Amino acid sequence: MHEEDFTSRLKCDTELDFPGSNTATLNKWAADALRKVADRIEKDELYDGFHPVMDNVGKPIGTVYVDYSLED
Hints:
- This protein is an alpha+beta fold.
- It has one domain.
- It has one helix and three strands.
């Protein structure tokens, strides 16, 4: 088989945990964090495996798991 016979796949699992006082604030923080993760994926900065996700002040808030593969 040749590489063109395969389909590229990306598995991306994200787990974030935010303590906060209200839903609106938590939603804003989550959206900001997910935008940063999306930017890193788009810039091809993440490789296979787990990567820490940090908040705006550098505190760990979770992880993102990235797995690139080819399937026939």
